[in-house]
Amino acid sequence: MATTFATRVGIRSLDEGARLLARIAGLAEAHTCRLQVDVRPESVTIRLPFRDAGSPTREDAELARAISAEAQALGLRAAAGSVQEVQLAIDAMSPPTVIPFWKAVLGYETMGEEDLVDPEAVGPWIWFQQMDAPRPQRNRIHVDIYVPVDLAQARIEAALSAGGRLVTSEHAPSWWVLADLEGNEACIATRMEFERVT
Questions:
Q1: Cα–Cα separations (whole angstroms), residue 16 to 63, 179, 190
Q2: C-alpha to C-alpha distance for 18 and 110, rounded to whole angstroms
Q3: SS3 for the chain, per residue?
Q4: For residues 112 and 114, what is the distance between their CA atoms, to the nearest angstrom?
Q5: What is the CATH number of domain 85-197?
Q6: Is the dihedral of CA 44, 50, 51, 56 positive or negative?
Q7: Average pLDDT per run of 10 along the chain, which is 198 residues long?
Q8: What pTM was computed for the model?
């Protein structure tokens, strides 16, 4: 499941990026949120982690809109289509019994009852998916890649052209399951439900 609202704003200089950060810093502090910002010479990527793991709140959506408005006020344009979120999903018969191991080995923190997050916000989010029955014939770890809705089909086509196969599109357009030549799975997922919130 997606865990953030995210956007990338094009900038012409680091000074312009600093002006944007100055404007949104106050918003983040007023909403007591841990905004994640990555500044590059050509862009600023802004991630707004959901307060409730996996579900954006109305307050999250309002803050995302306010951040977009600040960028527009500076004459900056968002390029949200270039932002993705990578998440690892681990299938488990009993998530509470395996989460402590992964928390310890990764040095991550718990978020809710079924997620682990990197406290430095560098590594991918880890989600533990409850299994109903053992599946020894399938891999138990897969990668979820969240992309904007309008980029999903191109990403799927690229994966298929690179030797992948479509396992199922049963849940499209929320997500598609793909696999490599050896059966290792990855899901191309969209932020459809979250884009509706904003």
A1: 21, 42, 30
A2: 32
A3: CCCEEEEEEECCCHHHHHHHHHHHHHHHHHCCCCCEEEECCCEEEEEEECCECCECCHHHHHHHHHHHHHHHHCCCCECHHHCCEEEEEEEECCHHHHHHHHHHHHCCEEECCCEEECCCCCCCEEEEEECCCCCCCCCCEEEEEEECHHHHHHHHHHHHHCCCEEEECCCCCCEEEEECCCCCEEEEEECHHHHHHC
A4: 6
A5: 3.10.180.10
A6: positive
A7: 76 92 85 80 85 71 86 83 77 88 86 84 85 76 85 90 92 91 84 52
A8: 0.61
> Same CATH fold, 85-197 and 4-82?
no
Q: Which amino acid is at 177?
A: V
- Class of domain 4-82 (CATH, top level): alpha beta
Would you list the domain boundaries of the chain?
A: 4-82, 85-197
Question: How many angstroms separate the CA atoms of 15 and 185, rounded?
Answer: 42
Angle at 114 between CA 66 and CA 5, to 5 degrees: 15
Task: Please tell me the total number of residues recorded for the chain in this structure.
Answer: 198
Q: CA–CA separation, 198 vs 58, rounded Å?
A: 9
